[in-house]
Amino acid sequence: MAMSLKSRVSVALPPDVNRMLYVRNLPFKITPEDMYDLFGRYGAIRQIRIGNEPGTKGTAFVVYEDIFDAKTACDHLQGFNLMGRYLIVAYYQ
Amino acid sequence: PAGDGRLNTRLARELDQRNRPLTDDELDTILPIEGYEIVAPPATYVPI
Description:
Chain A: Residues 19-93 form the RRM domain. The complex is a heterodimer of chains A (93) and B (48). Chain A has 93 residues and is an alpha+beta fold. Helix content of chain A is 28%, strand content 27%. The longest helix of chain A is centred in the last third of the chain and has 11 residues, at 67-77. The longest helix of chain B is centred in the first third of the chain and has 17 residues, at 2-18. The chains are: A alpha+beta (93), B mainly alpha (48). β2 (45-51) of chain A pairs antiparallel with β1 (36-39) of chain B, so a sheet runs across the interface.
């Protein structure tokens, strides 16, 4: 974690930031291994849910253990080109 | 200044609240269940 604990505490996070990311525009053939590999780089993952029905395919929920890791992931993966598709990442409200 | 201390305490308390562990049941109340599969981490997954 780049941020030291002290600077983490004094930094107030916007209210919409939370640990649950809603990801869209994923390739349909994305595997759990791909998801853990890509999102796991930013911090410990609490849970991943991948859409498996016509209406949910290509979307997923990625929950981090730590809110700062979720923020770092969201900031870095927004618009990330994965297998030719640009990811849409947002905090789940 | 003392004020800074109180601010940090309040932010620390808020951070703890926003970072408190979430149980599986809590996640099921927050996230959709229908149409989604909870995928287990691969054997090679090592949380950093």
